[in-house]
Design a protein that fits this description.
Layout lengths: L8 E5 L4 H12 L3 E6 L4 H9 L9 E5 L5 H15 L4 E4 L30 H23 L7 E6 L12 H16 L3 H5 L1 E8 L2 E2 L1 H4 L2 H4 L9 E2 H13 L2 E3 L11 E3 L5 E4 L3 E3 L19 H12 L10
Parallel strand pairs: 1-2, 1-4, 2-3, 4-5, 5-6, 6-11, 7-8
Antiparallel strand pairs: 9-10, 11-12
C-alpha cells in the first residue's frame, strides 16, 4: 500500500494555513500536484501557490475557493481537481476549527457571539469538523472506485486530535467531533484490504498554527512551559502514513532503529514531540508527553461557568 507521492495528485481542504498548508507544501516538494481548497489563502499560502502555479512545474498547486460546509462546492472541488490533474490519488479533508466563539457550545445559537442560527438546525463547528470530512470521504471513495487500478493504492488522511481521546469541558463540541473522526476512520479500515483505499488519521497535540495563535481566547490555555508541536512535524507524519509501511516513534527518524508502528487502514497516529499509535481499546490516552498539554484550560472553563451563571443562559437574545 505504501507508495511515492511523486507524480501523483492530491486534494487538501483547509490548506490555506496551518497543518494542511504544511502538508500541501510537503506534497508539492515531493512532486505531488495539490488542489488547495479553502475559503482563502494566508500570505504564506499564496507564496506556495504562486511558486507552483506554472504549467511547467514538476508539481502544480491550484487554489479552489471552497466553503467546506457547502456540498455543492465540495462536488465542484473534485470536478476542478479532475480537470486540472486527471486522476486523484490522495485526499485530506483537513479543514477544521477549534470551538471559536461564533460556533461554540457555551455561546448557544441566538446569543450575540454565535453565528449559529436558532432556526438553522445545525452547528457550524460540526459541519466543518465532522460532516465535511465524512462527505469528502464519500466523494473520494466514489472517485477512487471509478478510477480503480489494483496497482495504484489510494489514500485518505484525516486530522483527528488528542481531543478525540480526552474529555474537554472547555471545548466539548470540538472534542465530540474529534471522537467522531477517530471512530469514522477506524470504521473505514476494511476499505484497505477490499479496495486498496487506505483511510488513516493523525491525532495532533498542541500545534502552533493560526487555529491557536490568531485567537487570544484560546491562547489563555497555553502556559509558557507548554511545548508546541509544529505544523511541519505533523505534516511529516501525514506523509509517512502515505509513503511508508511503518512509522517511527521519533519524528524524522527514518533509521528504523527505534520503535516502529505498522500503517494500515484505520491507523491513527498521535503526534506530540514523539509519535505513537492510538489503540481502539485499552489505550492509555495521550498523557503528558511534550507537545500534548495545554496546561491552563481552567481559565476558559471558568469563563464558560461564568456564562452559565448568567440569567437566561441559552435563551436567544437576537
Amino acid at each position: 500500500m505504501a507508495f511515492s507521492v511523486k507524480g501523483r495528485s492530491a486534494i487538501v481542504t483547509g490548506a490555506g494555513s496551518g497543518i494542511n498548508l504544511s502538508f500541501a507544501r510537503l506534497l508539492l516538494e515531493n512532486g505531488c500536484n495539490v488542489l488547495i481548497a479553502d475559503l482563502g489563502l494566508r500570505p504564506e499560502a499564496q507564496v506556495i501557490v504562486d511558486k507552483h502555479s506554472g504549467k511547467d512545474n514538476t508539481s502544480r498547486a491550484v487554489f479552489q475557493q471552497t466553503d467546506v460546509t457547502d456540498w455543492q462546492q465540495l462536488d465542484r472541488m473534485f470536478e476542478v481537481a479532475e480537470r486540472e490533474f486527471g486522476e486523484i490519488d490522495l485526499v485530506c479533508p483537513g479543514a477544521g476549527v477549534y470551538e471559536p466563539h461564533w460556533t461554540n457550545f457555551w455561546r448557544p445559537p441566538g446569543t450575540q457571539a454565535s453565528k449559529d442560527s436558532p432556526a438553522g438546525g445545525r452547528y457550524g463547528l460540526i459541519d466543518i469538523n465532522l460532516t465535511h470530512p465524512i462527505r469528502v470521504t464519500q466523494l473520494a471513495i466514489s472517485h477512487f472506485l471509478h478510477n480503480r487500478d489494483p496497482k495504484k493504492p489510494k489514500h485518505i488522511v484525516h486530522i483527528s486530535s488528542i481531543a478525540g481521546q480526552n474529555a474537554s469541558f472547555a471545548a466539548p463540541v470540538y472534542s465530540a467531533t474529534k471522537h467522531g473522526i477517530s471512530g469514522f476512520v477506524r470504521s473505514m479500515a476494511k476499505l484497505d484490504e477490499l479496495f486498496g483505499i487506505r483511510v488513516t488519521a493523525v491525532a495532533p497535540g498542541v500545534i502552533k498554527t493560526p487555529l491557536w495563535t490568531d485567537h487570544p481566547e484560546k491562547l489563555k490555555m497555553i502556559d509558557t512551559a507548554d511545548t508546541w508541536v509544529t505544523a511541519d512535524e505533523v505534516a511529516e507524519v501525514m506523509l509517512a502514513l502515505v509513503q511508508q509501511e511503518k512509522v517511527g516513534e521519533v519524528i524524522g527518524d527514518k533509521s528504523g532503529q527505534g520503535q516502529q508502528f505498522e500503517v494500515k487502514g484505520g491507523t491513527i497516529l498521535e503526534v506530540s514531540k514523539t509519535v505513537r499509535a492510538v489503540n481502539p481499546y485499552n489505550d492509555p490516552g495521550p498523557g503528558k508527553r511534550a507537545g500534548n498539554t495545554a496546561s491552563d484550560t481552567r481559565t476558559v472553563e471558568e469563563e464558560s461557568i461564568a456564562l452559565l451563571k448568567q440569567p437566561g443562559w441559552g435563551k436567544s437574545k437576537l
